[in-house]
Fold:
Amino acid sequence: DIQMTQAPSSLPASLGDRVTITCRASQDIGNYLRWFQQKPGKSPRLMIYGATNLAAGVPSRFSGSRSGSDYSLTISSLESEDMADYYCLQSKESPLTFGSGTKLEIK
Amino acid sequence: QVQLKESGPGLVQPSRTLSLTCTVSGFSLTSYGVSWVRQPPGKGLEWIAAIWSGGSTDYNSALKSRLSISRDTSKSQVLLKMNSLQTEDTAMYFCARSTRGPDYWGQGVMVTVSS
Structure:
């Protein structure tokens, strides 16, 4: 199975900060990488697909990038509504696998 | 609009079989796949299984021997069965429309395994 190593597990940040979350794939997954946002008591929400494509309705302060086997989710200027858990998911091959998650919280 | 709704028993006894149903609307099961994902309380997301638009299926490697996923296209439903339940299977179970990965998600159904 493909392993997704996500870091950091927790990220304290201030409003207006630029923040980056990273996932590293254990094998080549091309651009088959998705990012999800999950708020307490809610279902996950698709934010990024194809490593770099913004899902419908997602604010433009969110972006995805790739450097080799490292995939990143960046928020350019943190807003209070962005405080949530974030997960990456590889969909290159089954079984699909999630990263362990990052809790983004106010410093 | 695209909607998915999970249903199933809230409480299941250990060693019993869990049956969950995902009822979808706004899209066809012959055009899109459906995945099941679970989340134990306070923990991360775990992909469990998927049935794809052509009817093929895939399973989580660690759970494969206990799982069965199927669909009834006439009812727009996807069915998940998991046998030999243990307390570690206590989780919120989500279904999600999937094309090379989930996009739209249901609200989830909480399943507690306890005697």
Remarks:
- DSSP finds no helices and eleven strands in chain B.
